[in-house]
Amino acid sequence: MARKSGSSSEKTRPLVRSAALSLFARYGFAAVSMRQIAAEVGVQAGALYRYTPDKQSLLFELMQVHMEELLAAWGEVDPKGAPLDRLDSFVRFHIHHHMDRAEAVFISYMELRNLTPANFAVIEGLRAQYEQVLEEILNACGAAAGDRKLTTLAVLAMLTGVNTWYREGGRLDRDAIADSYVGMVRGLISAAA
Q1: Could you tell me where in the chain the CATH 1.10.10.60 domains are found?
Q2: In the chain, count of helices (H) and strands (E)?
Q3: C-alpha span between 175 and 159 (Å, rounded)
Q4: Contacts for 177 with CB less than 8 Å, ≥ 6 apart
Protein backbone atom coordinates (compact mmCIF):
# COMPACT_ATOMS: atom_id res chain seq x y z
CA MET A 1 0.00 0.00 0.00
CA ALA A 2 1.61 3.24 -1.11
CA ARG A 3 1.30 6.56 0.60
CA LYS A 4 -1.99 8.25 -0.19
CA SER A 5 -1.83 10.88 -2.89
CA GLY A 6 -1.87 14.35 -1.43
CA SER A 7 -0.89 13.20 2.05
CA SER A 8 1.67 15.09 4.05
CA SER A 9 3.39 14.86 7.39
CA GLU A 10 1.00 17.45 8.85
CA LYS A 11 -1.98 15.33 7.79
CA THR A 12 -0.56 11.85 8.29
CA ARG A 13 1.08 12.24 11.71
CA PRO A 14 -2.26 12.97 13.48
CA LEU A 15 -3.81 10.05 11.59
CA VAL A 16 -1.08 7.74 12.89
CA ARG A 17 -1.68 8.92 16.47
CA SER A 18 -5.46 8.58 16.10
CA ALA A 19 -5.20 5.08 14.62
CA ALA A 20 -2.79 3.96 17.33
CA LEU A 21 -5.01 5.41 20.05
CA SER A 22 -8.07 3.60 18.73
CA LEU A 23 -6.29 0.28 18.13
CA PHE A 24 -4.44 0.29 21.47
CA ALA A 25 -7.70 1.03 23.29
CA ARG A 26 -9.61 -1.67 21.42
CA TYR A 27 -7.03 -4.50 21.35
CA GLY A 28 -4.29 -3.53 23.80
CA PHE A 29 -0.80 -2.29 23.06
CA ALA A 30 0.83 -5.72 22.95
CA ALA A 31 -1.69 -7.11 20.45
CA VAL A 32 -1.36 -4.26 17.93
CA SER A 33 1.36 -4.29 15.29
CA MET A 34 2.85 -1.41 13.38
CA ARG A 35 1.47 -3.10 10.27
CA GLN A 36 -2.09 -2.81 11.69
CA ILE A 37 -1.57 0.87 12.44
CA ALA A 38 -0.25 1.43 8.93
CA ALA A 39 -3.23 -0.36 7.39
CA GLU A 40 -5.61 1.78 9.45
CA VAL A 41 -3.88 4.95 8.22
CA GLY A 42 -3.53 3.73 4.64
CA VAL A 43 0.26 3.74 4.35
CA GLN A 44 2.91 1.06 4.10
CA ALA A 45 4.25 -0.22 7.42
CA GLY A 46 7.71 1.15 6.65
CA ALA A 47 6.25 4.61 6.12
CA LEU A 48 5.15 4.77 9.78
CA TYR A 49 8.77 5.19 10.80
CA ARG A 50 8.70 8.63 9.21
CA TYR A 51 6.24 9.62 11.97
CA THR A 52 7.43 7.61 14.97
CA PRO A 53 10.62 5.70 15.77
CA ASP A 54 8.74 2.67 17.11
CA LYS A 55 5.55 1.47 18.78
CA GLN A 56 6.88 2.23 22.28
CA SER A 57 7.52 5.85 21.30
CA LEU A 58 4.00 6.08 19.94
CA LEU A 59 2.49 4.75 23.17
CA PHE A 60 4.62 7.12 25.23
CA GLU A 61 3.63 10.09 23.06
CA LEU A 62 -0.07 9.29 23.41
CA MET A 63 0.21 9.11 27.19
CA GLN A 64 2.42 12.18 27.48
CA VAL A 65 0.14 14.31 25.31
CA HIS A 66 -2.88 13.14 27.32
CA MET A 67 -1.30 14.11 30.64
CA GLU A 68 0.10 17.41 29.39
CA GLU A 69 -3.29 18.39 27.92
CA LEU A 70 -4.98 17.41 31.19
CA LEU A 71 -2.63 19.58 33.26
CA ALA A 72 -2.90 22.51 30.84
CA ALA A 73 -6.70 22.28 30.72
CA TRP A 74 -6.94 22.31 34.52
CA GLY A 75 -4.59 25.30 34.62
CA GLU A 76 -7.05 27.20 32.42
CA VAL A 77 -10.12 26.48 34.57
CA ASP A 78 -8.71 26.38 38.11
CA PRO A 79 -10.86 28.93 39.96
CA LYS A 80 -8.29 29.56 42.74
CA GLY A 81 -11.20 30.34 45.09
CA ALA A 82 -12.43 28.86 48.33
CA PRO A 83 -11.23 25.27 48.92
CA LEU A 84 -14.66 23.61 48.60
CA ASP A 85 -15.39 25.60 45.43
CA ARG A 86 -12.07 24.46 43.98
CA LEU A 87 -12.88 20.88 44.94
CA ASP A 88 -16.26 21.08 43.22
CA SER A 89 -14.61 22.59 40.14
CA PHE A 90 -11.94 19.89 40.11
CA VAL A 91 -14.54 17.11 40.28
CA ARG A 92 -16.62 18.60 37.47
CA PHE A 93 -13.51 19.29 35.38
CA HIS A 94 -12.16 15.76 35.82
CA ILE A 95 -15.48 14.11 34.96
CA HIS A 96 -16.12 16.22 31.84
CA HIS A 97 -12.53 16.18 30.59
CA HIS A 98 -12.25 12.41 30.88
CA MET A 99 -15.68 11.61 29.42
CA ASP A 100 -14.56 13.25 26.18
CA ARG A 101 -11.35 11.21 26.04
CA ALA A 102 -12.34 7.67 26.96
CA GLU A 103 -9.74 5.95 24.76
CA ALA A 104 -6.86 8.13 25.98
CA VAL A 105 -7.92 7.61 29.60
CA PHE A 106 -8.14 3.85 29.13
CA ILE A 107 -4.68 3.71 27.60
CA SER A 108 -3.21 6.02 30.24
CA TYR A 109 -4.31 3.67 33.01
CA MET A 110 -4.19 0.24 31.42
CA GLU A 111 -1.02 0.45 29.36
CA LEU A 112 1.38 1.85 31.95
CA ARG A 113 2.79 -1.66 32.29
CA ASN A 114 4.00 -1.55 28.68
CA LEU A 115 6.15 1.56 29.05
CA THR A 116 9.91 1.30 29.34
CA PRO A 117 11.21 2.30 32.79
CA ALA A 118 12.39 5.70 31.48
CA ASN A 119 9.07 6.46 29.78
CA PHE A 120 7.16 5.22 32.82
CA ALA A 121 9.10 7.65 35.03
CA VAL A 122 8.09 10.60 32.83
CA ILE A 123 4.40 9.65 32.79
CA GLU A 124 4.45 8.91 36.52
CA GLY A 125 5.91 12.39 37.08
CA LEU A 126 3.08 14.00 35.11
CA ARG A 127 0.50 11.93 36.99
CA ALA A 128 2.09 13.00 40.28
CA GLN A 129 1.66 16.65 39.29
CA TYR A 130 -2.05 16.11 38.70
CA GLU A 131 -2.43 14.14 41.92
CA GLN A 132 -0.67 16.96 43.76
CA VAL A 133 -3.30 19.43 42.54
CA LEU A 134 -6.07 17.39 44.15
CA GLU A 135 -4.02 16.63 47.26
CA GLU A 136 -3.47 20.35 47.84
CA ILE A 137 -7.19 21.06 47.39
CA LEU A 138 -8.09 18.28 49.83
CA ASN A 139 -5.53 19.61 52.29
CA ALA A 140 -7.03 23.10 52.03
CA CYS A 141 -10.48 21.58 52.68
CA GLY A 142 -9.12 19.98 55.85
CA ALA A 143 -9.75 16.50 54.51
CA ALA A 144 -7.87 13.31 55.17
CA ALA A 145 -5.65 14.46 57.98
CA GLY A 146 -4.43 10.87 58.38
CA ASP A 147 -3.46 9.89 54.84
CA ARG A 148 -4.04 12.60 52.24
CA LYS A 149 -2.30 10.59 49.53
CA LEU A 150 -4.65 7.63 50.00
CA THR A 151 -7.70 9.91 49.93
CA THR A 152 -6.35 11.63 46.81
CA LEU A 153 -5.88 8.34 45.00
CA ALA A 154 -9.30 7.07 46.12
CA VAL A 155 -11.04 10.20 44.82
CA LEU A 156 -9.18 10.04 41.49
CA ALA A 157 -10.02 6.36 41.06
CA MET A 158 -13.67 7.08 41.81
CA LEU A 159 -13.80 9.98 39.33
CA THR A 160 -11.94 8.16 36.57
CA GLY A 161 -14.14 5.10 37.05
CA VAL A 162 -16.97 6.97 35.34
CA ASN A 163 -15.31 6.12 32.03
CA THR A 164 -15.88 2.41 32.58
CA TRP A 165 -19.66 2.68 32.63
CA TYR A 166 -20.73 6.02 31.16
CA ARG A 167 -22.44 5.96 27.77
CA GLU A 168 -23.86 9.00 26.00
CA GLY A 169 -27.66 9.01 26.06
CA GLY A 170 -27.95 7.09 29.32
CA ARG A 171 -30.26 7.74 32.24
CA LEU A 172 -28.22 10.72 33.51
CA ASP A 173 -26.62 13.46 31.47
CA ARG A 174 -23.04 14.60 32.01
CA ASP A 175 -23.94 17.49 34.29
CA ALA A 176 -26.15 15.34 36.50
CA ILE A 177 -23.37 12.79 36.83
CA ALA A 178 -20.84 15.50 37.69
CA ASP A 179 -23.22 16.99 40.26
CA SER A 180 -23.72 13.57 41.86
CA TYR A 181 -19.99 13.01 42.04
CA VAL A 182 -19.49 16.42 43.66
CA GLY A 183 -21.85 15.29 46.42
CA MET A 184 -20.13 11.91 46.78
CA VAL A 185 -16.66 13.45 46.96
CA ARG A 186 -17.83 15.98 49.55
CA GLY A 187 -19.30 13.11 51.57
CA LEU A 188 -16.08 11.12 51.28
CA ILE A 189 -13.87 13.95 52.46
CA SER A 190 -16.24 14.74 55.32
CA ALA A 191 -15.99 11.13 56.46
CA ALA A 192 -12.21 11.14 56.05
CA ALA A 193 -11.67 14.42 57.93
Answers
A1: 9-52
A2: 9, 0
A3: 14
A4: 95, 162, 166
Compute how many other C-beta atoms are within 10 angstroms of the C-beta atom of residue 98. 21
Catalogue the E-assigned strands of 21-167.
none
Report which secondary-structure segment, H or E, holds 163: helix 162-165
What is the third-level CATH fold of 56-192? Tetracycline Repressor; domain 2 (1.10.357)
| Domain formed by 9-52, architecture | Orthogonal Bundle (1.10)
**What is d(CA 130, CA 9) in angstroms, rounded to the nearest whole number?**
32
Residues 139-148 pLDDT 10s: 988 865 567 8
| 65-117 tens-digit pLDDT | 999 999 999 999 988 889 999 999 999 999 999 999 999 999 998 999 999 99
Confidence band for 3, pLDDT divided at 50, 70 and 90 = very low
Q: Where in the sequence of the chain do the CATH 1.10.357.10 domains occur?
A: 56-192
Could you tell me if 78 and 86 are in contact, meaning their C-beta atoms sit under 8 angstroms apart? yes
Q: What is the distance between the alpha carbons of residues 156 and 152, in angstroms, rounded to a whole number?
A: 6
Task: Say how many CA atoms lie within 13 Å of 79 toward its Cβ.
Answer: 14
